[in-house]
Write a structure and sequence with these properties.
The protein has about 150 residues and is α+β, with helices and mostly antiparallel strands. The chain is about 45% helix and about 20% strand. It has one domain: 2-Layer Sandwich (Alpha-Beta Plaits), CATH 3.30.70. It has a 4-stranded antiparallel beta sheet with strand order 2-3-1-4.
């Protein structure tokens, strides 16, 4: 488990600081797929700050490719990478192996000073919502506020 944590931290540093993963982790060649059987999809919404924009202006490298590599090293998959026209936000959709990885990415990105805010939205499919809404009858039966009469 320690090895996995080191690799995950190295990947997060790589993504946050734009440093190649090979410079952050000696064991990157040994890393295969760290994903568990349950993958969750998240959307990260970043409010890019002046420092972040200045870095992009100074080094307009392909951030999507860098993010794709880092997310892959963490056992995840980059689904989409976008900038919002008119609101200066960055939208990144990823599949990740666990919530801890998602939260660690958020904390590390915020600590970089490049962002003003970094929100995580766990995305749910229509099938997920169907399962949830089918359980509403059972929940209402024990809910003291919306109990069926």
């Amino acid at each position: 488990m320690r090895r996995i944590q080191k690799i995950a931290i190295a990947g997060l540093l790589s993504m946050s600081l734009g440093i190649p993963l090979s410079a952050c982790a000696q064991e990157s060649d040994k890393t295969q797929n760290l994903a568990s059987t349950e993958i969750t999809q998240y959307m990260f919404i970043a409010d890019v700050g002046p420092t972040g924009w200045q870095q992009l202006i100074d080094d307009p490298s392909d951030r999507e490719a860098a993010a794709r590599e880092s997310i892959s090293k963490l056992g995840g998959e980059l689904v989409g990478y976008y900038f919002g026209f008119g609101n200066s936000k960055n939208y990144v959709i990823v599949n990740l192996p666990n919530k801890e990885t998602a939260k660690a990415i958020q904390i590390l990105r915020l600590s970089s000073g490049m962002l003003n805010d970094y929100e995580i939205v766990e995305l749910m499919s229509p099938a997920d919502i169907e399962v949830i809404t089918k359980s509403m009858g059972d929940l209402r039966a024990v809910d003291d506020i919306q109990k069926d009469e």
